[in-house]
Amino acid sequence: MSTGTAMIDAAIKAGNFNLALKLVDKKISQQPTSSHQRACRCFILAHAALSPESKTTIDDALKETLELTNKTPSDPNTLILLDSTFTLLDYKPKDDLYEAAIRKYQSHNLAYEWFKKTVNTNDIIAMQKATMALSKAFKPDTENGRMIKLWSSAVIIVMIDCCKDLNRLSNGKDKLLSMLGLKIIEGVETDLKKGLNAQEMFVKCELLLKKGDTKECLKELANFLTKESDLELRMIYFEELEKNQLWEELYQSCVDYLVKIGVDDWDTWKLAILAAKKLDKSDVISKIINDYKVGRNSQLAKIQVLEISDFEGKKQALKNYLDLYMHKLCCFLDLETFLKNEFLPKETILEILEEKYNKFELDSIFTGDKKATENDLVILVNYIKIKTFLIPESFNSKEFFTTCCKYFDVTKHLQNKLVEFDYYCGFEFLILAIESYLTINENNIDNQTYLNLIIVLENSLIRNKYEFHLQLWLAHLYSQTNLSAPLTRIFEVLKIKNLQIDTLSTHFTNHIATKTHNNDLISIAYNFYDRNVANELPPMIMSCFENCTFSKLKGFIEFKIRVENSVTHYYTVLQTIQNSRLGKSSDSVQTITQNQIPILKNAYRIMKLNGSDVDLKIHDNSDRKILWACGDHKVHEIPQKFIESTFGCLVDVKYIELLTLAELIFYDQHSRIWNEYRESFLVLVDKFDDIKALSTIEKSIFTILSKILADDTATIEINIPEKPTDSLSAEFNNYYFTLQDFERVLTTILKQCSPTSFFGNKEKRLQISKLHKDIKKLCQEIDRDSILVNSKQNINIAKANSQDWFVNDEFGKQFKVPIDVINVCYKNIEVDALKAIKEI
Amino acid sequence: MTSIKPFQATDLFDLTPINLDPLTENFYLYFYHQYLFTWPTLSYKSINNYGEPTGYMLAKTEGTGKEWHAHISAVTVDPNFRRVGLGSYLCDQLKIISEPTRPINAWFIDLFVKCSNKTAITLYEKLGYSVFRRVIDYYGNNNNNNTISINKKKINDDVDAFDMRISLKRDVNNETVRKNGRKVYVLPEDVQF
Q1: Domains and CATH numbers, chain B
Q2: Each residue of B160-190: pLDDT tens digit?
Q3: CA A612, A613, A617 angle in degrees (round to 5)?
Q4: How far apart are CA B136 and CA A435, in angstroms?
Q5: In the UniProt record, which is one GO cellular component term (chain A) (predicted)?
Q6: pTM across the whole model
Q7: From CA A601, how far away is CA A599, in angstroms rounded?
Q8: What ipTM describes this predicted complex?
Q9: What residue ranges do the domains of chain A occupy?
């Protein structure tokens, strides 16, 4: 945020608030009527009030800011500064600054600035008001005037769809708004003389539906679709026909779409079949299906059209489908819905499956009499996936484990035929085998298991390095060791970038700031949010408005909100703080306060809203399904417990909330709402058990922190867990890093407090100083030489254990990992582990 | 089972299985969004029975006069749904959208494909596309800023692209396609609209 004067900005940045005030006061004396310079003064006062060195209090700053606000300034730059000042002061003025200003001085500049601000801040309700103000500021009969009227109607739709919680649109306000929107668009329609285009029609129809005028909406849609086949409008049309049980119209329009226009669309088949059944036209639709070009959809429609009681028909349809598609990878996924719905008895499906197994001579592959072809491989994959889906208890069986290993073995020669980037589905056998192994050995799983399975996956990736399921499983296994370097390597192999950072990076970054100082993954993620998201998204929404692409508007706004307020974004910020605190830079406090704390304050504001609407909550955009989008596509509790334990799980909203509150408690000590942080933190600390991602040492540190936050000033007993002994375990670096981080945290608390803050109380300071001394002592006692010696021993023991497991264990030996691969893996493990240990 | 649905910005959160495939480019945010707000009807996805994306198409319109056409910028399919004609299905939809008089009424559809990508070329030929011209060094490093240094006669399958076209109903006389396209060489600057 810039004040518009470089010297003042520089003084604020350097924390020299006296100089900044001196400079602005000089400007005020030169321009005594300038509201902007006065807003600038408020802005400086707010900064000063948040700093431990300044005598300015929050109340002083707020008083002066409110005084200026009461004069209703209307200069956009003044409003921007005032708005930022209120944000700094954690104060929400009773009236929206822009709304108040525009009531007094109507201008399109001001209305546009307000609109832009609402887009930037994701304030949907104010966005609607701003577009209304904007539309009043333009002449209605001009091109721009008409466009802006359309904007205001379109925002009404977004508002009604997105603002449902917390009684934001209570007492029929949604109906009133839709009527208002309709009035606006009908006005535009009259002005236009030519008909509405598809995007405008979208707005009109949505508003008609929201008003409750379905009949009129269907009429408009039917009329429009005869002239232009717009997909978005067609979806609305079909949906409304179904909802209103207009079977004849639904049937006819679906058949037209499938046959006349020629779109072979599964959802339309389903609707056509449904409508046909309601109209007693099953025979007619069956004939249409039979005459239709052969494809997956029409083959599945043959199953869908059959009556529940038509047992033989369904059997035959399944057989036909398997004959046509069992050698295609989509086979299992296509049938999954039918399998879930038990469209045929389990025994019957298994019987058919065995029939196909014999027909395709799969047994001869299993016994080694026949060499598997690419088609055989896919058939086998589908066979085992369907079978496992139907018999989930297979995972408990040693025989099943052996079968999966065997299938992997008898098909692995096909990997030799792969050219770069080819997709190889044989990995599915391996994932199933691993899931089965973990299920059978649930009670014997330990850190060594992670290392053994890492070797299994590394071995299979030698020839299939782009297989992303295996790579992601591998990343989770590495996360549960002390090895962080391989995570960067996998991240690079998968070329994770752009939005994938939001959806996938938490698969790699669990506790990474407390494992290594090397912050590559954190910086990549941080830069994405800091540069791409912050700079690219607001203009995109503006472009959506400018192009009048109303059917995408809600998606754009939701997208921006979800990325900006995502778990990954905030976790990245939290890890950046921790990483920077643990680093050697002397200006980390200033950097953190200026760059990261404002983001966390925003996170806190969202957390506090705690609603169900898109703009009232933090979003978990991490892809939680991808690990389990293989095998039988089900999440199995035991393997999941192993793969997604404390250090391998994807961090969740609760964990982010706890960490955010902690950082705000440390760095935002002079905030008006600091006590809220404290209270919320203490509530969350009481619910430790709900937070899976918390490591043992973190729990201890947060417990100590909760004691500091109590009013009591007695000496705090340091109760932390025993030092971990296995240097290859994920707890190892995490333990030492977290301890050292806590020492820095206590330094920060003492550095950031002042007599007006909670920690600035003399007795509290003494209590924290004493604790700081004790923690510092613990950090000084870390014996790095002995850790290094022990680590080398740990690695040798683990290597011997792995070698033994792969040769002698009844499960391990079936993975058939060559000894040289084990040795190479351990060579890498040794390098990565020692590198990690040396970072302590 | 496959259905076609309009592509929304929020669908980008659900593309992991498609975009993790090494052959699929994972573009910067602006790229996707630009297609959505500029050509909203030409971006769509195929979904499975659970509404999860299994593939998508990003296309645009460009050109004037008889060069007015739809251009396929990206078409990609989840590895689990390959070899069942889903790529063709997505391309066919574009024809259904671009051909009618309202709203697009294009003369043809075109796309660029690396000359070395034989599998894709065969697929497009099966769909009715033919090579219109060879764009020298289209995928090379020079095409953005220094086309002068490109030797128009020096062909290289790994960096050259075939500009492939299919003419639509509006092109009654097949004026927008040609038979000997493989022998017509142009520079990247010649294919800008």
Answers
A1: 1-106 (3.40.630.30), 111-193 (no CATH)
A2: 999 999 999 999 999 999 999 999 999 998 9
A3: 70
A4: 50
A5: NatB complex
A6: 0.96
A7: 5
A8: 0.95
A9: 1-105, 306-390
